[in-house]
Amino acid sequence: MSRKRVAVLISGRGSNMTALIAAAKQPDYPAEISLVVSNRPDAGGLSVAQGEGIATEVVDHKPFGKDRAAFEDAIQAVLERHRIDIVCLAGFMRVLTAGFVDRWHGRMLNIHPALLPAFKGLDTHRRALEAGVKEHGATVHLVVPDMDSGPIVVQRSVAVRPGDTEAELAARVLAVEHQIYPEALKMLAEGRFTP
Ligand code: GRF
Question: Using a 6 Å CB cutoff, which residues line ligand 1?
């Protein structure tokens, strides 16, 4: 079976991207990271990807202003040019329209730093601490038009410890993110996840 061609979409440091690249180096991994796309020219993850010999593209959202569809058409063109099969959102900080999401139905994953459906949106670690939850974690899910929704592929929890700071909790969750994103991509690439 040929390996699926994956694009990782980032906006920042790309530590989840790095975890996916590392996993895909295993000879029996069913996917290869063929492309990294950033909407920010200064995203730290771009140089990491380049250092790994992976193709990178910048599609800056700023020239498109409020025209999300035109921005997404530019991304779509890049994905098609690289013959991408699966898209992984990894800290990609742009809201996607239903039109783009539907094009990638069942073939686009996102990672969210909380145990969905709890704490959708931003500042998940601060909100988890404020809520006093004892368990927090991370979720990889298929992307649907509603933000931070969609069928859950892999989810893993971490304990919230008394006196945790936001940074301590974030670091514990991030370690779990780096485990579960490669697991979820493997399942999807092998056709073992059917919602
Ligand atoms: C991660 O916490 C991810 O869950 C969230 O954005 C952050 C991206 O971090 N969606 P990185 O760029 O992968 O290091």
Answer: 10, 12-16, 90-91, 111-113, 174, 177
